[in-house]
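I have been asked to look over a protein record a colleague put together. The record follows directly below this note.
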Amino acid sequence: MAKAKIRHIALATKDPVKTAEFYKEAFGFREIARTPPDNPLAYGVFLSDGTLNLAILNFKTDQLGKGMDFTGVHHFGVLVEDGDAATEKLESLGGICFMRPTPEEKMGYFEIKFRGPDGTVFDIAEHPWGGAAPLDSKTARLKEPAPAK
C-alpha cells in the first residue's frame, strides 16, 4: 500500500484573485482552475507547484468556527490509496468525520473532511487535487487540470 502524501493546502482569504496573483508572481506557481461564482462553499483560485495543490478561497460559510473574517491556513489534504480504510482508521483514532461525499460527489472528486484531536480540519481523498502529484501513477486516478482562464 502506498504511503499517504500531503497534496493540498487551503488558504482562507478575502481576495482570492489578488492573493493568487501574489503567489504566482512570487513563486511561479501555475493557475489550475477557479471555482464557479455560484459554488456554495467558496469562491477561489487553485494553484500548483507541480506537486502540491494550493487552494486560495473566500469561504461562504464558517467551517472552522473562527468567524467569517478568518484568514490563514484553513485546512490541508492528504492523498490516500483507500478512502474507506483511511476513514475507518482515522475514526478509530478519534478523528471526527464531519463531511462525507454522496456517491455522486465521490465520482466528482469530492474530499472526506475530518477534525483532528485539536480541531484542525483536514481532508482525505483517493484522487490528486488538480496539479498535484499522484501517489503512484499506476494506482492513483489523475484528473486532468482545467486550463487556466
Remarks:
- The chain has a mean pLDDT of 83.
- The chain is about 20% helix and 30% strand.
- The first helix runs from residue 16 to 27.
